[in-house]
Amino acid sequence: MNILVTKRGFGTKKVSVSNKNMDESKDFIFSVEMKPGPDVHPHEEWYKIIYFGFNKYDVSPESQIIMKEVVNFMKENPDTKIGLSSHTDSRGNQYYNKGLSERRTRSAAKFLLDNGITPDRIAKLDWMGETLLVNHCEDGVLCSERDHALNRRTEFYVVGFVPDKK
């Protein structure tokens, strides 16, 4: 298990703890050496991706599992704001793909809203079309369906935090 330790004015420290090879429950007491550094929120590197079928924008049952993880993360971290960025593969023209990626973003955002996430927590919505491919499958390049599928995605990432009211 990993534990993230944070303190104002210090960098985040990840500590790994294991109870492997123990036959009973034990309490752990440990100290963590922290070094002064910038305030870094422990969820800055949080990231999730869902994938879409060819020419589809609805959130599939498989993707709903990941979307529920996004909802749970946001409910457990009410200070967190996220961004959504949707993409297509290179098949189809750029105008169509831009519109398809917009529909993907809006569909994913609707899922969040329908599951209790307030609009102010969704800070950024992007639809990128085919402009940010994750592989070599650009126009005119022969690619497998599996390679194309990697580009048909919506990415969820942390974009900000509500400041502490201290």
Please state the overall shape, judged from the principal axes of the Cα atoms: elongated
CATH class of the largest domain: Alpha Beta
Estimated radius of gyration? 20 Å
* CATH topology annotation of the largest domain: 60s Ribosomal Protein L30, Chain: A
Q: Helices and strands: which structural class?
A: alpha+beta
Major β-sheet annotation: 4 strands, mixed
Low-pLDDT ranges: none
Number of helices: 3
Instruction: Give the rounded overall mean pLDDT.
Output: 85
Strand content: 15-25%
Number of domains: 2
Second rung of CATH, namely the architecture of the largest domain: 2-Layer Sandwich
Assembly annotation: single chain
CATH superfamily heading of the largest domain = OmpA-like domain
Distance between the termini: 31 Å
Count of DSSP strands: 6
Summarize the structure.
This protein has 166 residues and is α+β, with helices and mostly antiparallel strands. The chain has three helices and six strands.
Give the secondary structure arrangement, pairings included:
Elements: E1 2-5, E2 13-16, E3 47-51, H1 61-76, E4 80-86, H2 94-114, E5 122-127, H3 145-151, E6 153-161
Parallel strand pairs: 4-5
Antiparallel strand pairs: 1-2, 3-6, 4-6
